[in-house]
Amino acid sequence: MPKRARTLSVALLSLAGASALLAPPPAAAAPEWLATPEAQLRAMRRIQCSEVDGEPAIYYWQGYAYSRVAGEPDKTLFRVEGMNIRACGPLANAKSPADFRLVSREILLYEDPVTGEVLREWPNPWTGKKVTVVHVANDPVNGPIFSTFMRAYSSINREAVARHSVFSGPVKILDLGGGDGDLSMAIATHHPEAQVTVADLPVVIERTSQSFSSHPHASRLQTVGVDLLQDPLPGGYDIILCAHVIDILSPEEISGLLAKARAALAPKGKLVVFTPVTSDHGRGPLINSLMGIYFLALARGKGRFYSTRKLREIAADCGFKAFRDVPLPCDEVLLIAEKGG
Ligand SMILES: C[S@@+](CC[C@H](N)C(=O)[O-])C[C@H]1O[C@@H](n2cnc3c(N)ncnc32)[C@H](O)[C@@H]1O
After folding, report:
1. Which of 248, 272, 296, 305 to mutate to test the pocket of ligand 1 (most atoms within 8 A of CB)?
2. Can you tell me the distance from the alpha carbon of 161 to that of 326, in angstroms, rounded to the nearest whole number?
3. Which end of the chain, C or N, has fewer beta carbons within 10 A?
4. What DSSP character marks residue 295?
5. pTM for the whole structure
6. Which of 209, 245, 330 to mutate to test the pocket of ligand 1 (most atoms within 8 A of CB)?
């Protein structure tokens, strides 16, 4: 299994442990035990490993692996069974007493879905060829888990989004919560007239500015340090992009941010939201419901995955109009709206 997919599966399987946290979202502020970045790190550590440095924690899982190919029904490919042993300890150059380093080792076996027998060979149903099965043996898989996982997750549809024609022409784009700037760099690469500014927390922006400085399109990549929830946004942009950001916010925070975003847009400006979504009836897909718990429990104690309908409703209440949504693989969507008059 490629390393990115492996990291994703580790992070998702950890959600099984978090399922006991399935509860309605907090109505007001985060509870005290999740109120600060340090408290959130401690909560993350409690889910990931022992609070005692060096003490091992063991995970075991079993399930089925399915194919997902556009236009085909999913196929059951394997039964899978795995275990992971991990320990946490101090982080070199820690900035807070809650910082920690996680090291884990992991195996996962691919098994016959009917008999449960460990597979040595497997007939690939698409090519008809028999291939040797390479089981997963990661030694070690190191954290930091969340940022690695988020980066891998964000990359699934990054290229498709970056190529979209909404970014064509001489447009000024503000990428809210743009993080490491991976999507902004991809947009600048595909659209030679686009100028992209990443807006993120000052501590994140320091790193992003460094990677922009050596990028071939550095002259069209800028950064600005802002707290999206507290500070005003810089104005005069043709496009405000929210990529994997809406899902860390409560509905009230989304309204506040989109109202500020609308004010920061030029008269014919557009809002572009790239995000995982649940179905409009709110009962799936399973993976996004589980991921929503992860965001609700860990990311900030407020976010979750929303349906396209809910996002349209919130954006329409902020004055946005003429919605278009482009469905993307893996239950993500690109929602485009106009500032309107
Ligand atoms: C899940 S990441 C998404 C990063 C990137 N847009 C992507 O698609 O991969 C969320 C981003 O929002 C930023 N963020 C969270 N709260 C913020 C705030 N209050 N002000 C500014 N940025 C914030 C985080 O620093 C992080 O870079």
Report:
1. 248
2. 10
3. C
4. I
5. 0.63
6. 245
- What class has domain 154-338? alpha beta
How many Å apart are CA 265 and CA 172, to the nearest integer? 10
Q: Is the dihedral of CA 33, 37, 43, 49 positive or negative?
A: negative
Tell me the pLDDT of the chain averaged across its residues: 85
Query: For residue 233, which of 260, 256, 208, 253 has the smallest C-alpha distance?
Result: 260
Distance 92 CA to ligand 1 centre (A): 24
pLDDT band, very low/low/confident/very high, at 28 (cuts 50, 70, 90): low
Task: Write down the pLDDT at residue 258.
Answer: 98
Cα(314)–Cα(311) distance, integer angstroms:
5
Q: Which residues of the chain form CATH 3.40.50.150?
A: 154-338
Structure tokens at 135: 């089981």
Return the structure tokens found at 118. 């460990």
Give the type of residue at 214.
S
